[in-house]
Amino acid sequence: MTSSRRQILDRLQRDERPFAAVEPPSSYRPMVPLNDLSPAALHSHFVSEAQKAACVVYQPASNGEAVDTILQVIGEDQTISCWAMDQIPLPGLESALEQAGIVRVGQDSSVRVGLTGADAALAATGSLVQCSGAGRYRAASLLPPVHVAVVTTSQILPDLEHWWAQQRAGGLEQTRQASNIVVVTGPSRTADIAMQLVMGMHGPRELHIVLIEA
Predict the structure, then answer these.
(1) What is the end-to-end Cα distance of the chain in Å, rounded?
(2) Which residues pair with 44 in a beta bridge?
(3) Is 81 helix (H, G, I), strand (E, B) or coil?
(4) Residue 191 CA: distances (Å) to CA of 85, 132, 198
(5) If DSSP codes are grouped into helix, strand and coil, which group holds residue 5?
(6) pTM (predicted TM-score)
(7) How far apart are CA 44 and CA 59, in angstroms?
(8) Would you call 146 helix, strand, or coil by DSSP?
(9) Alpha helix (H) ranges present in 15-110?
(10) What is the pLDDT of residues 145-170, one digit of tens each?
(11) Counting Cβ atoms within 10 Å, is residue 56 exposed (0-12), middle (13-18) or buried (19+)?
């Protein structure tokens, strides 16, 4: 090392730091503040924001109606990309798929429909949070052209900040075990080329949310 460079580095090391150490804040303001955090208001706001993001939102009156809705979206397809059944909170779904002769696979680039659950639904933006891992195949929500997500009303949270605070309160056990965390807001889209909106460019072009009471 040249003597001039050594002199510069020595001087920098001797000088005081330009900024004093700053303690991180204990709380943060939400990026999208909500005035009403009641369950009914969060429910309504989530549905509204999800629909604005081009999601198709179903609010079936019963579990049986929810199963019928999913079968209608699947249509005549005989194979779907699907999370493990114990990761999708809908009683009766597994037997209905079996009776319809629908084969469930984790990843298959040829299937049209992907069926998943979700870890949280964010009212502020109409987004879904999904943690991949055992029985929760990432490809099921990203690879097929049509994504169907089963969400319970109890999973609706105000925003991503509340979800992260919930994870921290639990010791981050879930997030540390996840192989991947995805925040999904509507179908895949891009407007990079000539500012023309194209749906399904990098993922599903349809997102169907089946919202059930639980």
Answers:
(1) 67
(2) none
(3) strand
(4) 36, 28, 6
(5) helix
(6) 0.84
(7) 11
(8) strand
(9) 39-52, 63-74, 93-99
(10) 999 999 999 999 999 999 999 998 88
(11) middle
